[in-house]
Write a structure and sequence with these properties.
The structure holds two protein chains of two kinds.
Chain A: E1 4-7, E2 10-13, E3 19-25, E4 31-38, E5 42-51, E6 54-57, E7 65-66, E8 76-78, E9 87-94, E10 105-106, E11 110-114
Parallel strand pairs in A: 2-11
Antiparallel strand pairs in A: 1-3, 3-8, 4-5, 4-9, 5-6, 7-8, 9-10, 9-11
Chain B: E1 4-7, E2 10-14, E3 19-25, E4 31-37, E5 44-49, E6 55-58, E7 61-65, E8 71-76, E9 85-96, E10 99-104, E11 108-113
Classes of the chains: A mainly beta, B mainly beta.
Chain lengths: 115, 114
C-alpha cells in the first residue's frame, strides 16, 4: 500500500530534550516536506527536500533540522525543543517538484507537546 | 506571511444546505490544489485545477479556478455529515530556477449544525 508513515504519533517531552520524528514513504517520491499545523494558521512549511541531499528552508524553519540521506526517509530533528514548538506535525511527499505541483501525500501526523 | 487568503474560517450549515469556500491569491498561480482534512485526520488531496476558468466536478463538489488564475472556490451542494472537516486550498506559484512554491490557505472548517 502506498503510504507515508510517521513515528511517533504522539510525543510529550520537556524543554531542551532533543528529539527526532521519523518520516518514510514507499512511493519513490522525489519531493518530501514537513509542515506544522496550528489552530487558525493552517499548514506552514518547515523544510522541504527536492531529492536526496537537497534540502531547503520553508516558511518556519527556526528550531528545526532535517536530513535526506535516502530517498524514502526525511526525519525532522528538534535539537532543543521549546514550548512554542508544541504543534501537530505532518510529513508529506509528492512525485516531483518540477513543472509545477503534484498531489501531496500526507502522513498521519505527530502530535508533539513540549512542557 | 500567507499570500493565499481563504474565507470563511468557519461555516456552520444545516445538513442539506450548500457550502462554499473561497481562496484569493495576491499573485497569479500556476495551478491550485484542494485538500480535505477530516477531524483528527490528515489532509487528503481532492483535485488540482490548472487552466484559467477551469471548472471540475466531483459528485456534489464543484471546483472553480478564476480567469486570472488568482482565485478559486469549492462549492458543496446539499451537505452531508460525511462532508464535515476542514478544506484547504494550496496554490502553486513559480519562484524561479525551475522551482515552484506551494502556498496554503488557512482552511475553512465545515460544521454541520445538529
Amino acid at each position: 500500500e502506498a503510504q507515508v508513515t510517521q513515528n511517533p504519533r504522539y510525543l510529550i517531552t520537556v524543554t531542551g530534550k532533543k528529539l527526532t520524528v521519523t518520516c518514510s514513504q514507499n512511493m519513490n517520491h522525489e519531493y518530501m516536506s514537513w509542515y506544522r499545523q496550528d489552530p487558525g494558521l493552517g499548514l506552514r512549511q518547515i523544510y522541504y527536500s527536492m531529492n536526496v541531499e537537497v534540502t531547503d528552508k520553508g516558511d518556519v524553519p527556526e528550531g528545526y533540522k532535517v536530513s535526506r540521506k535516502e530517498k524514502r526517509n526525511f526525519p525532522l530533528i528538534l535539537e532543543s525543543p521549546s514550548p512554542n514548538q508544541t504543534s501537530l506535525y505532518f510529513c508529506a511527499s509528492s512525485l516531483s517538484w518540477l513543472a509545477g505541483a503534484y498531489e501531496q501525500y500526507f502522513g498521519p501526523g505527530t502530535r508533539l507537546t513540549v512542557t | 506571511g500567507q499570500q493565499v487568503m481563504q474565507i470563511p474560517q468557519y461555516q456552520h450549515v444545516q445538513e442539506g444546505e450548500d457550502f462554499t469556500t473561497y481562496c484569493n491569491s495576491s499573485t497569479t498561480l500556476s495551478n491550485i490544489q484542494w485538500y480535505k482534512q477530516r477531524p483528527g485526520g490528515h489532509p487528503v488531496f481532492l483535485i488540482q485545477l490548472v487552466k484559467s476558468g477551469e471548472v471540475k466536478k466531483q459528485k456534489r463538489l464543484t471546483f472553480q479556478f478564476g480567469e486570472a488564475k488568482k482565485n478559486s472556490s469549492l462549492h458543496i451542494t446539499a451537505t452531508q455529515t460525511t462532508d464535515v472537516g476542514t478544506y484547504f486550498c494550496a496554490g502553486s506559484r513559480y519562484s524561479g530556477d525551475s522551482n515552484y512554491q506551494l502556498i496554503w490557505g488557512a482552511g475553512t472548517k465545515l460544521i454541520i449544525k445538529p
